[in-house]
Amino acid sequence: MAIRQELGATGVLELVIDAPPVNAVGIADLAELARVVEGVAERPDVSVVLLRGEGRGFIGGGDVKEVQRLEGFEGILGQVTGSTDLTVGIHRCAVPVVAAVHRYCIGLGVLVAGVCDVVVTDEGCTFVLAEVDNGATGGAVQAMGLMPDKRLRQAMFTCEPVLGRELATYGTVVAVPDEAAVLTEARRLAEVMASKPATVLRAAKQAVNASAQRDIEELYRAETALTLELNMRGDARAARETFVSGERRGYLSPRD
To answer: Using omega within 30 degrees of 0 as the cis cutoff, is the peptide bond preceding 177 cis?
Structure first.
């Protein structure tokens, strides 16, 4: 399993994505992550969730090779269902969710970061909404948590990277100078949150969600209906083949 859990003495639960080489998240991993964040409601020992990626970057998107490998529409349906369950689960999680995002954050990774309560990233981190290059349409409602409308449209329609330092100007992320400091700052913020009265912290999460009034589940399902239509027509498979073949390597940092 590419997901592991590490619970600290203060109640900070670290969920670590470790799926080399780029942390592309498969259907089973999406289900496991969703199960854990939803289950926090019944875990008084958890005060804060910290989500991070091991290795080269945060999340390199959904596992497109798995989607292509599975018969019929099983792969795309699994990814759509899994990404819906995970992002809705994070948004509704009973406790705050902090994301430690380093080096790159692609496709599904942007959706996940967009629904976390706090995002810590390095200034040079690349955030790429790669859905159009993969024959997909969803993710706008989650990505709205990171960037304003017109910038989101540009990022989605071009699939060009948005840097962490730019997102910091919108106030949607905490940007640190380099990736080595990302996890340190994310852990510091998580520990500060975990020091607050547990019942008050959980109530505050509910209050903020109610005020934000962003129905991620309904809106994302409407978006992904177009993705499923593209797959039924056969238009999406060719786009994914191009992606898998390596022609989209420009998403990653030159160091990768």
So the answer is: no
